[in-house]
Design brief:
This protein has 422 residues and is of the alpha/beta class. The protein is built from 19 helices and 17 strands.
Amino acid sequence: MRVSDVMSKQVDYVRVNTTVRDVCRLIFGRGINGVPVCKNKKVIGFITERDILAKFYPTMQDYVEDYVHARDFEAMEDKVSEIFALKAIDVTSKNPTTVGPHTPILHANSLMAVHKIGRLPVVDEKGNLVGIIAKGDIFRAAVGDRLELAEDEEYNDWLSKRYYLTVDWKNRLSFEMPDLIRVFRDNDTERVLDIGCGTGEHVIELAKHGFTAFGIERSRLMVEAANKKRESLPKTIQKRATFICGEYENLIPSLQKEDLHAAIVMGNSLSHNPYNYKAVVKKTANILSRKKVMIFQVTNFEKVLKTQKRLLNFSFLKSGYEASPYQEHLFLEHYDPPRDGKTLLKTFTIFDFTGKRWKFYGVRNALFAYLTKEEIARILKACGHREISFYGSSFDGRKWDYLFRKPFKPLESDWLNVVAKR
């Protein structure tokens, strides 16, 4: 693979008379560690963070003339205004390392390693700037693009470090639990299975209300968090809450002996199983006793795709962890339309706010099952459920809603909530 296959063609660069202040703005604004310096379009240098920081330190002549003051590191920081006023030509590293469009990407990577730099200008045969390539571009091309999309466990492990810490569980449970408990009481339900239980909030709340609840979850980090919460509960409640980590298809049959009466799959967890959600529903239905109540909470993909222009969520939330260095997080979630009619690609992007500026935390892509009201009805009827009710609820990224008090409206409801009995 050649540099031209992966390089960025829209290149930020500065001119020889650009001030260092403006160079710094570009470096911070683009989240990069350096930029080419050009005269016309010809590359004559490259400025990095290291070059700018080097200007804070005294020269050898400064040491000779005033050794004591030359070692005052706090005073060095006061030079920032002086450094901002310098021109790019005063700071740039001369004779920069460059590559051509036809250079193999691993050759470019070896040059970065030898010269201890993270980006290389790409120039044509006349030395004119035509692109730039970074270590990240090479890593993505050589490794990242060959990885499979995030598995459900890895995806949830990643989200557990930011997103799940910000969920207002007090608000969510205040709306969802009354409706869940009412359905369970009406159907003589005492023992409940929570599939994709996350960090265990529904299981623990059910246990507090006298139910025996089992939570199963793929994410090891989430199960660890759930068990920590469980350990802080009174012993009588601890006995009624159990968390198990593993693959749903393997765990569900093993719970046959627990005499489970109902199952819940909340927070779009069913869609997290793009290729085996039918098996999950079928195996769950097979182990339930009594009235075999099943409850699903599924994202209303029809609204997301048709009225929200693919955007599921755009929200600013305060950090849910007191010791976090970040004050706030920005969560951006969107779906691509289903290309095969069965799955959607979800992209989840997170930014963190330090109190002074925003910084990029990360992005994950994962495939989700494209579940519709009709598809869920088909699956449940195939499992013998004849009484299936559909409801709608709202969610703005922060505030939650009751589950079973409003009719489902395909172009208005944020959640599709399902209650099935057999």
